[in-house]
Amino acid sequence: xxxxxxxxxxxxxxxxxxxxxxxxxxxxxxxxxxxxxxxxxxxxxxxxxxxxxxxxxxxxxxxxxxxxxxxxxxxxxxxxxxxxxxxxxxxxxxxxxxxxxxxxxxxxxxxxxxxxxxxxxxxxxxxxxxxxxxxxxxxxxxxxxxxxxxxxxxxxxxxxxxxxxxxxxxxxxxxxxxxxxxxxxxxxxxxxxxxxxxxxxxxxxxxxxxxxxxxxxxxxxxxxxxxxxxxxxxxxxxxxxxxxxxxxxxxxxxxxxxxxxxxxxxxxxxxxxxxxxxxxxxxxxxxxxxxxxxxxxxxxxxxxxxxxxxxxxxxxxxxxxxxxxxxxxxxxxxxxxxxxxxxxxxxxxxxxxxxxxxxxxxxxxxxxxxxxxxxxxxxxxxxxxxxxxxxxxxxxxxxxxxxxxxxxxxxxxxxxxxxxxxxxxxxxxxxxxxxxxxxxxxxxxxxxxxxxxxxxxxxxxxxxxxxxxxxxxxxxxxxxxxxxxxxxxxxxxxxxxxxxxxxxxxxxxxxxxxxxxxxxxxxxxxxxxxxxxxxxxxxxxxxxxxxxxxxxxxxxxxxxxxxxxxxxxxxxxxxxxxxxxxxxxxxxxxxxxxxxxxxxxxxxxxxxxxxxxxxxxxxxxxxxxxxxxxxxxxxxxxxxxxxxxxxxxxxxxxxxxxxxxxxxxxxxxxxxxxxxxxxxxxxxxxxxxxxxxxxxxxxxxxxxxxxxxxxxxxxxxxxxxxxxxx
Length: 726
Hints:
The chain is an alpha+beta fold. Helices cover 50% and strands 11% of the residues. The longest helix has 20 residues, at 171-190. It is globular and about 85 Å long.
């Protein structure tokens, strides 16, 4: 953990504003860093809740709902241009009830009004700007509005004035819009499938759709802007594992390599930026999100297991090292995000997007000297005039985004040096540049801890330990799980909270909180073999079913049955930046059903797949995590069960052997001599018959409930695994 960042950035900002004599609005009582960023706006913001709705009803005013998050660049722009403007704020305060929502705290509200925004405007994004009736029904929406009209967008003040006139003179026009949009939202939430049957054809179709849009030169899919979509790479690797499809494997491996060589990857500090504004992964949008790090780190470890190329292992470990260094709370939870903009630690002023990461060549030469500076510049594509000239952002002029256009061999040839010598120069240069960068104004850190995203990172840390044996990663995964259990789990009824910050746990957990954490706990068990995590995964899944199930349809709702002030409970099946909660829930149910022999859970997973069958068959490329769950549902169950003591050398030898293989659909269980064995035997009685042979740890590879001859050497186990088709 970076000790220089122990102080809460949001708390420091509040302190600075108080000291400057600024007046706060109602957001000052919130914990969200995003809401606190707006606590000193002249706008009379209110948080989402009964008070705001009662005021709108009592004062007969429409609601202006602004949704964003603390590391959103365009949210900062609109705040500076409009929400900090006294004239705009005065009009907004007089004619509207203004509500701010942090989308990361309330994904249920964000999802609902994003669907409304897309229905009303044809696109979506953040900041999201939605106008509501006092009963929360939306009637107009958009995203970023500039201060003045232009480029096909109305100016924000002009828009406020126009809507106010309609509110006063032709309100039925607005209520009519609200009825239509709300009806569409309710229709989306209650839609049922046509009962189409799923088949392996959907997996082939997903592969074909990926192949059609694959960029063979730079990797990824489509053109600019390019987003890393971890779920599609995961599916491609799984597709190859069972079908030995070279093209699927290469699409994933090429994309992951090109991404890691691009500017979208932080070449000095590790970790991925949010997306690339160009098609070459060169120029990123610089914010860093925990959910990206968790998914992508896991993918790079998968890619290493598939290819044995140490490049992927290096990237995976660098991502985890970045998270442990810069995004880990002292108590063990993982923080949410780092901003694209840098922030001056003295006055809180912003220093422009990406400036923390950009370099002038002269800076590099000054730090490293001319000889080594030239080597580092060549390797990282640094130019005297700057390499980001094509980017429209003025602050980029003359500066460089570090990426890797030349490999080690090409760099060695360029300067007539041995590769080992160049590697040493680059390693030393990287270390010195990172140390110098650490002294710059840092990007804003969103230090709230989100249950779902911690679940993703627990999975990644667990994979990191399996691939490297580095105990820091197992320790990181375990500390996060313990933190969540202590601070975000209500032990009485096994319900989750969504967010923790500064001692406060708040907001009901959403489907993704349960699903992503359960996935993380299953993966943590598969690394630590502590049955406590498996038991907790089962308990949380039981509670998830009670809170999110639909009595009439198979799929889960994304918000719990106890959700308050939510106009419509939505269901999502799009696997985008994050996989859909239903996709991960279906996978979890299938995995746990195989461990616990719970046939009802398998049926629930199949019901989820059936509910979304129409979309899955038509556009599986948009639902790759759901397609992966379907793929697992049709595979014969396979387990590797080790009978042995968890801390013995022979047990570890067998586990280490297993960890060298990419086995996405194989469950690894440890039947030791403690409570873990007793727990497994309750659900899988066959384990009672499995014992260590000749006093040595023994592995049983079982397929479709039939076990092969037990083995107790790593070499024999490796041969068994290799001969069984994954």
